[in-house]
TrEMBL record:
This is Trehalose 6-phosphate phosphatase. Removes the phosphate from trehalose 6-phosphate to produce free trehalose. It comes from the Eukaryota. Its cofactor is a divalent metal cation.
Amino acid sequence: MTNQNVLVPESMEIAVAAVANPAPMFPYLPPHGGGASAGGVRGGFGIRRKCLPQLDLAENGGSGRINVWIETMEASSPKHKSAATLGVSASITGPHEHSTWMLSHPSALSMFDEITKALIGKQVVMFLDYDGTLSPIVDDPDRAFMSDAMRDAVRDVARYFPTAIVSGRCRNKVYSFVRLAELYYAGSHGMDIKVPAKGPSLKKPNGKAVLFQPASKFLPMIDKVYRTLLEATKSTPGAKVENNKFCVSVHFRCVDEKRWRALADRVKSVLKEYPKLRLTPGRKVLEIRPIIKWDKGRAMEFLLKSLGFADCKDVLPVYIGDDLTDEDAFKVLRNRGQGFGILVSKIPKETSASYSLQEPSEVMDFLQRLVEWKRLTLKSCTMV
Ligand SMILES: O=P(O)(O)OC[C@H]1O[C@H](O[C@H]2O[C@H](CO)[C@@H](O)[C@H](O)[C@H]2O)[C@H](O)[C@@H](O)[C@@H]1O
C-alpha cells in the first residue's frame, strides 16, 4: 500500500473529520517558505500538513484504508448524508470551513493576476489530469468525454506551453478522448509515457516517438489479474472492471452501496494472490497497480527532463488534477519549490496543491485566461 498521505477521495472528509477532530477543522500554520518565489507561485505556502487528521490507513495490511474509504463513500451517499448518522456536526463541511480552506487554497481564477506575475520570464509546462479535471465525472467511464470547448482550450494552451496529459487511464484510451496529437501523454498513472516525435529531447534519430514504460514486465500479471477480477466481480450488478494496461480499475459508482463491502472484499481477496500489486482508492474506484516506485509525480519529472528542463531554473510546471494520485505530482512541485499544483475540488481536502478550482468548467476558464494572457504578453512584446 502506498505511503502517501491520505487525500480525501470524494467527500471522504466527512468521515475523516468524524474520526478525530476535536480541534477547529482547518487549523493553519503560517505559510512556510514565503510567498511567490523564483519558480513558485505560493509554492512555499503551506497549509499545515495536518489540515485534516491523518489516519493510519495502512492498518490490517491496508484493509483499514479500504474500510475508511467505504465508510466515507457511505457517509457521503444521499441515504446516509445526515449529521445524525455521522454523529458529527453538520458544520464540518459548512461554509465556514470551506472559506477557511479557500484562504490557503485560493481559487486559481481569483488569484489569476498573482499567478501570471510569477509566470513572466518563465517557461510554463502544463500537466493536466483527465477524469474530473478535463471531463466531468460520469457514471460510465467509457463515456467520460471532454467537450469540444475544453479540447479547444487545451489545444490553445499547447500552442504556447508544452502540455502533457497525465492519467490513470490506459494511454490509448485517454488519447481517444483528448485527440490532440501535439500533446505528451502519460497513461496508467504515468507508467506509460509517450514523448511525441516533435519533442525536443529523447527523440530518436529516426524521428519516432519515444515510449517509456517502467512497469512493462508487469503486463502479463496485470492482464491476468484483470481477467480474474472480471470473473470475481461479474455477479455484482453495476461493477465494472477497466483494463488500463499497466493498472486495473474496479468501479463502484454504479454498484448499490449495500454491495460495496462485499465487492471490496472480493477485490482484496484476489489481490492476496498478487503480492507485487497494490490497491489504492480513488473516486468510487479501486485501482490495482504494480508496487514500483513510479507515480504521476515521477512521470511529471520524467517529462520535464525529456523536455530538457531537468535542472532549468526558469521552468514553471503547473499541474492540475482532482484525485489522490495527483497528490504525488503536487508534492513533487512543492518539494522542488518550483511551479504549483491546482486541485480541482468543490470540497476541502488535504492537499499539497497551492490553488483550487471547483470543477472542469473552471479548469477551462483558467486555461482560456492563460492563453489570453500569453497572447497579450506576446503582442505587447512585439509592439515595443
Ligand atoms: O487519473 P485520471 O485521469 O483522473 O483517472 C483516474 C480514473 O478515472 C476514471 O474513473 C473516474 O472517472 C469515471 C468517469 O467519469 C467515473 O465513472 C469513475 O467513478 C471515476 O473513478 C477511469 O475510469 C479510471 O480507470 C481511472 O483510473
